[in-house]
C-alpha cells in the first residue's frame, strides 16, 4: 500500500491506536503467563497438510472432527483449545480449481458448529451459514466445486452467538486453492511457500485462554501458526508468504524491520480473492480480521546473519508485546529459480452497475454500557431479509463506518468484490484485486462493486471483526 494507507491508520482512534512503549498499562498487561515468553525463542511451525481419505478422478475427500484438545502454546504449559482434528492451528486443505473437494465434518463438541469456507463461491447448502449448524454428535458433508481462481481461503466456525469464542479458541484452518495459471508463473513454491496465520490471545497465569466478548485490550499474546512470537530460519532467496488474519478484533499494520530507520518494502502479489494483476511494492501490510495477503520477500538482498522482525505498528497494547510478530533469521544464499513476473493475473472488466445501495456500520461505543452492533441501524435477525438482489445483476455498495472510535470491516459471503473508491479516492494498488473483506476505520467510506451471477439463495454479509458480528453487525441478502 501507499503512504496513504499508513495515514489512514491514524484514523483508528479509540482502542486501536499507534503503539507506545512501557507505562502502567504495559506493566498491567505484562502480568500474565505470556509475559514470561521470550520473543523469538520458539521456531515457527507450519500447519499440517491434511491428506485425502479418498481420491477419485474428479474429487478429493477429507474427514475432519471438531473436538477439544490440549496443546502447548506457551512453552512448558498446556492450554485447552478447540480444534479441527486436534491441530492448533487447524490443518490445511490444498485444493485445485475445477477439482471438487468433499469434506465430512463430525462435531464431537457439546455445542453446535457451522463451517464456513471464507472466500468460497458455494451454494447455500454448502456455505456454512450462521444458522445452518451441525448439532453435537452429528456430521455434515460440505462440497466445494472450486469454480474460482486460485486464492488463499480459510475455513472457520460460523455458528451465531458462538462463532466469536469458537474461532478465538481455535476453530479455523487454511484452504489453499491453486490453479494452472498460477503454476506457470514460477512463484516461490514448495517449502518456500509458507502460510502465516495470525491470531492473538489473552492467557491467565495457568496458561488458559481467557475469552471476554469485545476484548481488544487484553489479547496481547501474538501467535503465528499457533506459536508465540516465533522465529523462522530462511535461506537467502525468495519466499512467498500467505498472511491470514484469524484474530477476532486485531488489525495489523506490518513492516519488515532490522531495528534501524531503513524501510524494507515487500512485494504484495495477492489479496483475498487471489493474485493481483501486477505486484505492488509496499512498505506496510495492512490486514484486518478475515483478510488475506500474499507477499514475496527476497532475502538474498540481506547478508547472512541478518535478523529481520515483522513489526506491528498498531495497537491496542504495549509495544513490547504487540509491536512484534515474528523474526526472520537470514542464512546462506542458495540457488533460486523462482520469480515474480510483472504480470500476475488478468482481472475481468467491470460490468456497468444497475443498482446502488448504502450500508452504515456502527456499534455502541465503549463506555456507553451498550453491547450491540448494527448495520443500517438494525441488529441481526435470522428471520429478516435485509437486501433483495436480482440474480445476474451488478451493484455498487457504499459502505460507511459511522462509529466514532471503533474500526470495522465488511465481509460478503459468496461474492468477491472490487473496491472502486476509498473516501472518494482510488483504492491502494494492493487493494485493486478481488476482495471479500474491506477495512474501514472510523468515518471511512468504501465503494464496492459486486456481481451476483453464480448461486441463488440467502447469504449473510457482516463485520468480520467477529465479536462485532456476534453482537449483531450482520444482515442477510436474498439473491433470486
From TrEMBL:
**Which CDD domains is this protein grouped with?**
CuRO_3_CueO_FtsP
Q: Which PANTHER family match?
A: BILIRUBIN OXIDASE (PTHR48267:SF1), CUPREDOXIN SUPERFAMILY PROTEIN (PTHR48267)
* Gene3D superfamilies the UniProt entry points to: Cupredoxins - blue copper proteins
Q: Which UniProt keywords apply?
A: Metal-binding, Oxidoreductase
The UniProt entry's sequence similarity note says:
Belongs to the multicopper oxidase family.
> Cross-referenced InterPro entries, in alphabetical order?
Cu-oxidase-like_N, Cu-oxidase_C, Cu-oxidase_fam, Cu_oxidase_Cu_BS, Cupredoxin
Q: What is this protein called?
A: Bilirubin oxidase
Q: Where is the Plastocyanin-like domain?
A: 70-180, 369-479
Q: Which Pfam families match?
A: Cu-oxidase_2, Cu-oxidase_3
The Gene Ontology terms for molecular function here are: copper ion binding; oxidoreductase activity
- Source organism superkingdom: Bacteria
Amino acid at each position: 500500500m501507499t503512504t496513504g494507507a499508513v495515514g489512514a491508520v491514524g484514523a483508528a482512534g479509540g482502542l486501536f491506536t499507534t503503539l507506545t512503549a512501557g507505562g502502567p498499562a504495559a506493566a498491567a498487561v505484562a502480568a500474565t503467563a505470556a509475559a514470561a515468553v521470550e520473543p523469538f525463542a520458539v521456531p515457527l511451525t507450519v500447519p499440517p497438510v491434511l491428506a485425502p481419505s479418498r481420491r477419485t478422478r474428479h474429487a478429493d475427500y477429507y474427514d475432519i472432527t471438531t473436538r477439544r484438545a490440549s496443546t502447548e502454546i506457551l512453552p512448558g504449559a498446556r492450554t485447552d483449545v478447540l480444534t479441527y482434528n486436534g491441530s492448533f492451528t487447524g490443518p490445511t486443505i490444498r485444493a485445485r480449481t475445477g477439482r471438487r473437494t468433499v469434506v465430512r465434518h463430525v462435531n464431537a463438541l457439546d455445542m453446535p458448529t457451522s463451517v464456513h469456507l471464507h472466500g468460497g463461491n458455494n451454494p447455500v447448502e454448502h456455505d456454512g451459514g450462521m444458522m445452518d449448524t451441525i448439532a453435537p454428535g452429528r456430521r455434515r458433508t460440505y462440497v466445494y466445486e472450486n469454480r474460482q481462481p486460485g486464492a488463499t481461503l480459510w475455513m472457520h466456525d460460523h455458528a451465531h452467538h458462538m462463532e466469536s469464542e469458537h474461532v478465538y479458541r481455535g476453530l479455523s484452518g487454511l484452504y489453499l486453492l491453486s490453479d494452472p495459471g498460477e503454476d506457470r508463473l514460477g512463484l516461490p513454491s514448495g517449502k518456500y511457500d509458507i502460510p502465516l496465520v495470525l491470531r492473538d490471545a489473552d492467557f491467565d497465569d495457568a496458561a488458559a485462554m481467557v475469552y471476554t466478548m469485545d476484548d481488544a485490550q487484553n489479547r496481547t499474546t501474538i501467535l503465528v501458526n499457533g506459536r508465540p512470537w516465533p522465529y523462522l530460519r530462511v535461506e537467502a532467496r525468495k519466499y512467498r508468504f500467505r498472511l491470514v488474519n484469524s484474530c477476532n478484533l486485531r488489525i495489523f499494520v506490518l513492516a519488515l524491520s532490522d531495528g534501524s530507520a531503513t524501510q524494507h518494502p515487500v512485494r504484495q502479489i495477492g489479496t483475498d480473492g487471489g493474485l493481483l494483476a501486477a505486484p505492488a511494492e509496499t512498505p506496510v501490510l495492512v490486514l484486518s480480521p478475515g483478510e488475506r495477503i500474499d507477499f514475496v520477500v527476497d532475502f538474498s538482498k540481506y547478508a547472512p546473519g541478518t535478523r529481520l522482525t515483522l513489526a506491528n505498528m498498531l495497537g491496542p497494547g504495549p509495544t513490547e508485546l504487540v509491536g512484534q510478530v515474528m523474526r526472520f533469521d537470514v542464512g546462506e544464499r542458495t540457488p533460486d529459480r523462482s520469480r515474480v513476473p510483472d504480470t500476475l493475473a488478468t482481472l475481468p472488466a467491470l460490468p456497468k452497475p444497475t443498482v446502488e445501495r448504502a450500508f452504515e456500520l456502527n456499534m455502541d461505543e465503549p463506555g456507553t454500557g451498550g453491547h450491540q452492533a448494527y448495520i443500517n441501524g438494525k441488529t441481526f435477525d435470522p428471520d429478516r431479509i435485509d437486501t433483495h438482489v436480482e440474480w445476474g445483476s451488478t451493484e455498487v455498495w457504499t459502505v460507511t463506518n459511522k462509529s466514532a472510535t471503533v474500526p470495522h470491516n465488511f465481509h460478503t459471503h459468496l461474492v468477491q468484490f472490487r473496491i472502486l473508491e476509498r473516501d472518494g479516492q482510488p483504492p491502494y494498488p494492493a487493494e485493486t484485486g478481488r476482495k471479500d473483506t474491506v477495512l474501514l476505520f472510523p468515518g471511512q467510506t468504501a465503494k464496492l462493486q459486486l456481481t451476483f451471477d453464480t448461486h441463488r439463495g440467502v447469504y449473510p454479509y457482516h463485520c468480520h471483526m467477529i465479536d462485532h458480528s456476534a453482537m449483531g453487525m450482520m444482515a442477510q441478502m436474498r439473491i433470486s
